[in-house]
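Tokens help. One example:
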Amino acid sequence: MITLYGAAVSPWYNKVKVALIEKGVNFEEKLQRPSQDEAVLQASPMGKIPYVDINGFKLAESSAILEWLEDAYPTVSLLPPSTNDRARAREMALMIEQYLISVSGPLLGHVLFGAPLADGQRDDIAARLARGVQALASRMTPGNLWLCGDSFSVADVALAVALPHLALVGNKLLGHDPLAALPLHEQYRDRLAQRTSVSRMWHDREQQLQALLAR
């Protein structure tokens, strides 16, 4: 049994959750906030979420968890078949995570918990996000059903997580959704919504988000 620790408003948690569902893995979820408590640090040395307990084997860092899942459950792969496409999927996933999700982190902290934003920080983040979107768009092939061709991959997992996240913080704090500029296939979002993994993740995220915003 795999236990996934974290919170449904965390993009990194949702990345792992989608991968687990896609691979048909039996798992349970336990709510856990980032913490410096000793019990958490034993499982996640930086106290971050998500982390997993795999029959007593503790593993943190979302990318490492996805690599473990790919090794342990290779039948349903989240990487395309060719070497070049596999590399491209990993590259695009990293671009989404580093240049979009991570960059927007301070905005999410402000929306959910009232964390302060420094003077000019919104404009700086908006510019960095625009650059990240431009970089990601340069790697996309117009007309592709998925980001890396015909296969749903780790790149699509990352974007499925990023879409509602960036829409929330962008519309609330920047006046626009930064990802609206991506040249996605016209049916891309509908295709995402039809996947059980993504629809469940979006639903659970929205439920927890509304509970937090109602406090």
